[in-house]
């Protein structure tokens, strides 16, 4: 495993562990979208964040590991 891949893997796993621990302290519903007045328009479950965490890392991986 190259150094670049190792750093990426450590960041992904570390972020996921921190988020997993923090999930227990979050409220059940988290506002995700606010309108111009500052009112929350869309709420999601706190577990929805766990699904979104790997998305930026997967996008990063796709752009940095293109087949030549």
What can you see in these coordinates?
The structure is a single chain. The model has no long low-confidence stretch (mean pLDDT 85). It contains three helices and two strands, in the order H-E-E-H-H. The protein is 54% helix and 18% strand. Strands 1-2 form a two-stranded antiparallel sheet. It is of the alpha+beta class and 68 residues long. The longest helix is centred in the N-terminal third of the chain and has 21 residues, at 3-23. The chain has one domain.
Mean pLDDT: 85
Largest sheet: 2 strands, antiparallel
SSE class:
alpha+beta
From the spread of the alpha carbons, the general shape counts as elongated
- Can you list the strand order of the major beta sheet? 1-2
Cα-based radius of gyration, to the nearest Å: 16 Å
The total count of helices amounts to 3
Distance between the termini: 19 Å
List SSEs in N-to-C order: HEEHH
Number of E-type strands = 2
Q: In percent, how helical is the residue content? A: 40-55%
> Which runs of at least 5 residues are low in confidence (pLDDT < 50)?
none
Count of structural domains:
1
* Beta-strand share of residues: 15-25%
